[in-house]
Structure prediction request, 125 residues.
Amino acid sequence: MPESGEHMEPPPVAIEVRKDETTRLYEALIDGQVIGTLAYETTGGRFSLTHSYVDRDQRHRGIASAIARYALEDLSQRQDQAKIGIYCGFVADYVEAHPDWKDVVDINHSAFIATNTARDTASGH
Prediction:
């Protein structure tokens, strides 16, 4: 049992991240199972990261951060040097925590509210 004040951390996991250009998703896998995604769009040659999702039972294990880091590294290596549009609140928070990415992204905070509103409307809340 952990001593008082200690948090039980989940064991480290081997996370594989890949890009699927057919579905326009960055995918995180554990043991070959997709457990998280980060969607991207391309408009006029500009890439935007739009929405992330990690299975509920896999959250708080660094999976979304691993996907965000992989996607930012992948997209920042493009030749055109256009800024990466960020419409995903999690990725925006990741960039805030890792300011070395700020020069390569354009964070659209107004989109976060619209995304949440659309989700609330669709679920009937």
Q: What stands out?
A: Confidence is low (pLDDT under 50) at residues 114-125.
